[in-house]
Amino acid sequence: MAESADGAEKIAATSGATARGPQTGPPAASEVRRFATFLSHNSHDKPAVERVAEKLHEAGLEPWLDRWYLIGGDVWQADLAAALRASDTCAVFIGPNGFGDWAREELGVAQNRAAKDPAFRLIPVLLPGLPDPFDHSAMLPPFLTNRTWVDLRAGLDDPASFQRLVSAIKGIPPGPPGPGELQDQPPPYRGLQPFEEEQAGFFFGRVADVQRLVEKLKGSRFLAVLGPSGSGKSSLVRAGLVPALRQGESTGSSSWPIRLLKPGARPLDELAVSLAELSGSQDQLGA
User: Fold this and answer.
1) What pairing do the DSSP bridges indicate for beta strands 89-94 and 121-126?
2) N or C terminus of the chain with fewer C-beta within 10 Å?
3) What would the pLDDT profile of 227-236 be if each residue is shown by its tens digit?
4) Which residues of 31-40 are buried (b: 16+ CB within 10 A; e: fewer)?
5) 3 state DSSP class of 84
6) Which helix H or strand E contains 222, and what residues bound it?
């Protein structure tokens, strides 16, 4: 591994580099023409990132990790672009130590490629040790704030979290439905009707928005979702946020009582009735 004077790690890559990882690690790079993902990270997070690299390799996804492929004496600056060209995606790890100086340089190169190649995906990955709730606007670089992140804060060995990373690298939804006869399935199209909680399996494209709503609720008891009529507010809350809370995306949220209501002409009365039903004190209203 090469380091600058301040200890920041440099990622190098050449198409002819030889793997120097553990014996059970990746094969020689001369036998590998493509990499599933380039692992960009702060050197202080190296142990966690290498554990993820090992799990990806075991899952059949070859990662580019500097400790495995960096050759001493190479001019890493000239080879960085080659490494990213040889990778289908770039996983950008964000840990409690923040971004390293060279990780920011790698991100700049990756962003340049992503701007020219729409198929090249940048994947923010949250490591254990990050605060909960996670303030994406303060901790993510500007060009990553609108990208859906993969959350590994539950632990590097959490199967569901790791599967989300695998799916992101492959470019597929994390939980596609199993095979079945189409005629036995409910229609996925809602037309002008909002998606409800029971249609959550058909609700796609708002994962990043749901993530941000969940993070907001971790730090506040009140959250308002505002937008023009027809922009998808109801679907986002009912088919996105509510299922995420029921699945425990926020600590303890799987046991939260959840009520859905329409404000109508007397919104405060509707809210009072809904809350009374939760507490079993509905008969006391209007007395």
Assistant:
1) parallel
2) C
3) 888 888 889 9
4) ebeebbbbbb
5) helix
6) none
Paired tokens of 101: 């100086």
Cα-based distances in Å from 140 to 93, 94, 130, 150, 176? 10, 8, 12, 13, 28
How far is Cα 270 from Cα 141, in angstroms, rounded to an integer? Answer: 42
Can you tell me the distance from the alpha carbon of 192 to that of 201, in angstroms, rounded to the nearest whole number? 18
The Cβ-side half-sphere exposure at 215, using a 13 Å CA radius, reads: 21
For residues 111 and 133, give the distance between their C-alpha atoms in angstroms, rounded to a whole number. Answer: 26
Task: Please give the Cα distance from 123 to 111 (Å, whole number).
Answer: 11
How many residues in total does the chain contain? Answer: 287
DSSP annotation of 230 reads T
Q: Which tokens is 149 given?
A: 């992140």
Residue 20, pLDDT > 80, answer no
Q: Is 278 helix (H, G, I), strand (E, B) or coil?
A: helix
Name the one residue in this structure whose structure tokens are 């998606």: 195
